[in-house]
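On clarity, I found the account of how folds are encoded harder to follow than it need be. What matters is that the chain and its backbone geometry are given together, residue for residue. For the editor and my fellow referees, an illustration may be useful. For illustration, here is how one protein appears when written out as sequence plus structure tokens:

___
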Amino acid sequence: MRISTLTASCLLVVAAVNLPAQKGQRRAPARARAAITAIEQGTGLASQGRPSQPGNPLPGITPAEFELFTTGRDDFLEVEDAGEGLGPAFNGLGCAQCHGTPAIGGISPVAETRAGYVDENGEFHVLGGDTLYHLFSLPNQECQPTIPPEANVIARRVPIPLFGAGLVEAISDETIVALEDPEDADGDGISGRAGWIEDVETGEMRVGRFGWKSQHATLLVFGADAYRNEMGITNDLFRNEVGAGIDPETLALCDPTPDPEDGIEPLTGLRGIDAFEGFMKFLAPIEREAPTSEASIGETIFAQIGCASCHVPVLMTASDRNPVFDTRPVPLYSDLLLHDVGTGDGIEQEAAEANEIRTPALWGLRFRRPLLHDGSAATPGDAIARHRNEAQGVVERYNSLSAQDQAALLVFLDSL
């Protein structure tokens, strides 16, 4: 069954599920200065004139790639039901419920909930086998995860937009690792590190770049994880149902559909996870607006006070036989590293420590509200004010700016 509006699918959720209980000024590092020079020389992806509409495919893809894009977009819009493997514990009926604004592949106010326990020694512990506590369940409360009373860390995570995700995937591990400075050797207060994870598909160690905790390195695994975790639909990469605190036997009673529930679609020859990968891979980034003089001033200030140390303006993709991804500049404003900037959620996950968060990309920021991993910041100014620890020096320099320079910086951010 397919529904053409997100409103209708949200109504279906209410009808179909049970609700749960509930340091001194320094110049920007050389890597950031070089990236800004690249933008000034016109190597960014932003077009001259009016940006294209969010949700478009990458320019230059082939007809076959466009078919993969549209097939995947259709699957993003699909509303799942129990007969297709939905549940037993889940957060939404389809991808578009969490990735729908300003276009399919974007964001929504829906937030997942994670929880755990930190002991008197400061060590983090997973309760009930998982940190994820789903919002909904089928068919009854027996398979509804509930946060145990001993949990003393409870976190919310809002969706991350997927625009330009294929370009992010095409950035090499080596490019990301080259930005690492875990011991702060350059003395700028920033000590980001790459999140090395085991890729579920290949078993190889890779640098994560997708998810708030850099928990996945590829779009195939990222989508497959969401299919199972957010909708409860098991697949070839994640074959077991999850429900924190619920034993496997009870889960099986609540969801008799044989695993894996994601199969090959006869008309396309693709699994659902393949279709999701195709859409995300060829989804274009949101282009920056043509910069005004004030935004250009703000961009310079952004670099001068050190924001670009983590929010690196441009990374390059690796060499690729596909010209769409071959050595392309990616103006995402992120180093794709893990940092402790005081906005972490307290949840350990994969390579990320409890207070580490992968640097969020800022491209498309003007379409994204609320901000930060938990949606606690209403504006970019609010988000800046929340930064601490590694970012303390940056915040202090921001606070020392004149009101005019602060305003110019915010104008720049709202042009992204």
In short: The chain has a mean pLDDT of 89. The longest strand covers residues 112-118. The chain is about 30% helix and 10% strand. Residues 6-51+59-413 form one domain.
